[in-house]
């Protein structure tokens, strides 16, 4: 069952790169659209160290990400990804994200370019035809 659930989650991650990431700013949720890449169930996204999300995750590294549903098909699945953020230090992974990044918001050569690694703690997959989501608990 777990392998089947992981496969369904990976299918959503393979099909969708844009999602919404929520962190906490002044005790309120703070959301923004982000581009995500994944290695297995671990997500990666790029940012600059001068942007507010760096301070937000330094104070509280737990984030929630919604990815998958785009409103085009009522039957499409999406995931709620709850995890903990760390700054990626592995140069090979940073290079890999640089190569995949195609963004008008970030230039790969900008000073302060950082890759955020989001370590999954719980992933819920919602199928709009099902009453309840399937949950993959990774804690």
TrEMBL record:
Matching InterPro entries: Pyridox_Oxase_N, Split_barrel_FMN-bd, Stress-Dev_Protein
Residue ranges annotated for the Pyridoxamine 5'-phosphate oxidase N-terminal domain, each copy included: 5-123
Pfam families, per the entry: PNPOx_N
Protein name stated in the entry: Pyridoxamine 5'-phosphate oxidase family protein
Cross-referenced PANTHER family: PROTEIN BLI-3 (PTHR34818)
TM region positions: none
């Amino acid at each position: 069952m777990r392998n089947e659930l992981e496969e369904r989650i990976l299918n959503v991650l393979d099909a969708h790169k844009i999602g919404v990431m929520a962190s906490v700013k002044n005790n309120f949720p703070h959301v923004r659209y982000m581009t995500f890449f994944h290695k297995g169930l671990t997500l990666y996204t790029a940012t600059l160290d001068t942007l507010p999300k760096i301070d937000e995750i330094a104070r509280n590294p737990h984030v929630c990400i919604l990815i998958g549903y785009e409103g085009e098909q009522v039957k499409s699945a999406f995931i709620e990804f709850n995890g903990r953020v760390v700054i990626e230090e592995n140069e090979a992974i940073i290079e890999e994200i640089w190569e995949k990044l195609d963004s008008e918001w970030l230039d790969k050569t900008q000073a302060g370019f950082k890759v955020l690694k989001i370590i999954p703690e719980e992933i819920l997959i919602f199928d709009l035809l099902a009453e309840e989501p399937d949950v993959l608990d990774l804690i």
